[in-house]
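FIELD: query
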Amino acid sequence: MSGQASLNLPRKSFVAVLLVLIWTLFSEAWLETWLVESGHSIEYVGFYAKLVILPFTVGLVWLIVSTSNAQPVKLFIKKSPGPKLIVFAVMVGVLLRVAWWAQLTARISFGITSSSDPDVRADFSAAFVCPDWQLIILAGLVWIIWVPVTEEFVHRGVIQGALSRKGPNTAILVSSVLFALVHSPDNYVWVFIVGAALGLLYWVARTLWIPIVSHATYDGLIIFDRLCLQLNWNPSGGNLPLLVQGFTAILVFTGCVLLILKLVYRVRAERDLSPDPGYF
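FIELD: result
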């Protein structure tokens, strides 16, 4: 089977892309701090910062790749993935989010994770309360459209593409590590897992739109979780471990991983029916 699209990027250009990522990380943090100090609502500052900074990130990376005799536009205009692969990509995004909830449930059940918030109750409760529609629209614009396209272009399309000639293990590993490092330190491990799943999906799909769809689906569910779904559960230490809940969550997590791998296999099988190596 042919691998993903390879990007002929010189070493100095690859280093330049890494410097752009470092600039993005610090610029977003600075802008968020400045917006908070300027009196903007903390609910909005993260979205505003990404809307301002990420266009510069894409522009700079695009310029670096273009001046290296590569054609980044080809990452987006390759053969259409087709409706079946789109459905598979959506399913991968959903399974990744379910897996996240499963691992969180397992960690809470075994006392690995707990909340220091005194308002979080020990018994489980749930409510569905969404914020103002302006915040939902802004969150959707940023997290369902802009962030997936930007991050997949940079991390899978450019970084993984530039390393693809070294084989899938190196390309996916390095791109996933860098993907994790530009996120919050609290989420390094999980973001690495998500990056590896998206990297593997890109490798077998040979089109950037597949991981973009999975990424957008996953982030869309995050918006639903964080903005509308109000869950409270913080069991006390005397009741831990909760073996039934913990082991059930582990089984759900394992099932999600196996289903994701099966979907990746299905994507590869579909792509093998219409080979399109896509090297440029």
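FIELD: remark
The radius of gyration is 20 Å.
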